[in-house]
Amino acid sequence: MGTPTTFISLFLILVILCTSTVANGDHPDHAKPSKGIRAAYWPSFNSFPASSIQTSLFTHIYYAFLLPDPATFKLSITSDDQTKLPEFIGSLLNLTPPVKTLFSIGGGGSNATVFSEMASTKQSRQVFINSSIEVARKYGFQGVDLDWEFPANVVDMSNLALLYKQWRNSLDEEAKACGKPRLLLTSAVYYASEFQVYGGPRSYPAGAISKYLDWASPMCFDYHGSWENFTGEHSALYDSKSNISTNYGIRSWIQAGVPAKKLVMGLPLYGKSWRLRDPKVNGVGAAAVGVGPGDDGILLYYQIVELNAQSNATVVFDKQTKSYYSYSGTTWIGYDDVRSVALKVRFAKSLGLGGYFFWALGQDKDWTLSQKASNAWKYGG
């Protein structure tokens, strides 16, 4: 385990930071829009330019991702980040209406062991926290987001609670010392509050999440995929046969004690594909003999729309899961489309959630789903 040899005091970092520099709608005109969080992640490793984001459809945009150095736990700003971070902020500053910006630390491809080691001591947590504040202030972000996928055991979860508390206290102190608005603190989390995959049985620290985070973002997708030999809706709103659904996951968070208004529900802009064993057996749960087209069976929404048109696929709205699937020959794709996105956003509103987020920008088709979700949230359309 790599641990820092010297402790960077919060007082010193505060001194340094305080001196740093920093669409179309289908709604009635008279309707009063509902407030809330309409967020999306911008993958810095993809080619979609931040300058092309339609900010009218969002309130918060995440830069994804930064990673902690495995030896020091300070954020590692790569040469690409050194170029893309100021470009990202600069592009969004020039867009109207304005959005708030956060950067996300971690992601699905990150090393969970590094986060476990970082969170294990007060000293290493503080080095990580100070670095996050320094980067946010240097580049002009309004918040920071943790995407630790995933704390592996009870000890990790206990340390995660300590990290949230220490981080929030540091953000409060830094804002007071600098006379600046406090940085937002958010965290992407598993779709359910309790789980036993990617490790042993454990629960997220609901009390710490409720007290110290501005909001938590359950990732309500990837329920099914290439590891299974049957088709499935990877972002099913409901599932009568299991607890693998957004309805179960979100309600588990509320039951655990996290206020609904502090939950921001994840929506995917991509689908999952399989190769059917029998083209004539093509419903949800049909036998499959491997993945279909895409990157390991993953197709972005705009690719799905184009493939459906090219292959003259049959498109079905699945009433049970409130999702879509299409099939053509042996190709089967499960995904969200306009109707299912609207239903899921209305579900979030009906439970009093704080909002929703998309993974990820650049995957939509002419902003179709982003527009529908925004209208459904703001106007119920």
From TrEMBL:
The keyword Disulfide bond does not apply. GO terms for molecular function: chitin binding; endochitinase activity. Residues 1-25 form the signal peptide. SMART domains: Glyco_18. Residues 36-380 form the GH18 domain. Coiled coil: none annotated. GO terms for cellular component: extracellular region. The keyword Hydrolase applies. This is Putative chitinase. The lineage of its organism: Eukaryota, Viridiplantae, Streptophyta, Embryophyta, Tracheophyta.
